[in-house]
Amino acid sequence: MALPQHRTSWPGRCYDALAFLTRLVPPRPDCSGRDLGPCLPCYGPAGLCLGLAVTLPCWLFFLVLWRRPQADPLLCAALAAWLWMALEVWSTRGLHWDGLADLGDASGSGAQGERFWTILRDSRLGAFGALHLLLAFGGMWLTVCWHIQAGQWLWLVAAPAWGRACVIWLAALAPPREPDSLGGLTCAGASPALAGWYALAALLALCGLALLGHHAWWRVPVTALGQFFILRQIATLARSRGGISGDFLGAGIQWGQLWFLASTV
C-alpha cells in the first residue's frame, strides 16, 4: 500500500515536524505517531521556523523599548530575553521543558531499573527536576539577554534549529527503550547517515558564520565538541537505563539549545 503523499513529500514532512514540535500549525487530521519517524529529517527546518517565530516579535519589542527616552540597554535586553523565553515555552507547549524536568528528577534520584522509569513518568515535579529547570531556564535567559544586547539576533533564530538537531544526534547514539512509544517512533527515523549530514551542515554553518565575522574561529570546535560531550553523557545514561524515551530527547533539545547559546556568546 502506498504511503500518503504528506508522509513522502518534503513539504508534508516539514509541516508534520512543525505541528508536532510546536503549536504554530495545527496537526493534520490523519497524522499519527507513525508519522514521527518520517518527519525527523525536517526537525532542523522546523526549528528555524520556530526561531523566526519567537525572535521576530522579540526584536520588535526590543526596538520599541530601546526608542523610549532614557532607555536602559541592559533592562531592555533582559525584558526582550524574557519575552523570547516566554514565546519559546508557549510555542512548544513546554513539551521539552517537561522532559528536562522529568529526566532531572529521575537521574538525580540515582534510581535503577523500573524505579528510574517510575520516577521519570511521574508528572509531579521534584527537587531535582526543579533545580534542572532553574539552571536551564536561568542560563538560557542570561545567554539570550547577552545575544540581544550584542545585537546577535541570528543566533536566536538558529538556536531552536540546533536544539532540534540534537534529537537526531542523540537518537543515533542510543537505541529507544520502547519502539512503539512516541520517543521510539521518533527515533525510528534516525540513522547514522542522517546524523552525519546534520553534523556536517552544523559545522559548515558555524564555519560560515566565523568566516563572516559573527564569532571567533575557536568557538567552532568548542561548540561542536562540547555538544558531543553533552549528548554523549545523556546517551550513556539512556543506555544504562535501557534506552532512550521522549523525555531524554526533550532534555537533549533544551540542554543542546542552552549550550549553543552559551558557547557563542
UniProtKB/TrEMBL annotation:
Q: Which GO terms describe its molecular function?
A: adenosylcobinamide-GDP ribazoletransferase activity; cobalamin 5'-phosphate synthase activity
Q: Which residues form a coiled coil?
A: none
Keyword match Glycosyltransferase: no
The cofactors required by this protein are: Mg(2+)
* Catalytic activity, reaction form: alpha-ribazole + adenosylcob(III)inamide-GDP = adenosylcob(III)alamin + GMP + H(+); alpha-ribazole 5'-phosphate + adenosylcob(III)inamide-GDP = adenosylcob(III)alamin 5'-phosphate + GMP + H(+)
Any one of the GO CC terms = plasma membrane
GO BP term (any one)? cobalamin biosynthetic process
Entry keywords, A to Z: Cell membrane, Cobalamin biosynthesis, Magnesium, Membrane, Transferase, Transmembrane, Transmembrane helix
* Annotated TM spans: 43-66, 73-90, 125-146, 153-174, 194-212
Localization annotation: Cell membrane
User: What are the EC numbers?
Assistant: 2.7.8.26
How does the UniProt record describe the way this protein sits in the membrane?
Answer: Multi-pass membrane protein
| Pfam family of the protein (one) | CobS
Where does the record locate the signal sequence feature? none
Pathway field of the UniProt record reads: Cofactor biosynthesis; adenosylcobalamin biosynthesis; adenosylcobalamin from cob(II)yrinate a,c-diamide: step 7/7
Q: Which family does it belong to?
A: Belongs to the CobS family.
Fetch the PANTHER family from UniProt: ADENOSYLCOBINAMIDE-GDP RIBAZOLETRANSFERASE (PTHR34148:SF1)
* Functional note: Joins adenosylcobinamide-GDP and alpha-ribazole to generate adenosylcobalamin (Ado-cobalamin). Also synthesizes adenosylcobalamin 5'-phosphate from adenosylcobinamide-GDP and alpha-ribazole 5'-phosphate.
Q: What is this protein called?
A: Adenosylcobinamide-GDP ribazoletransferase
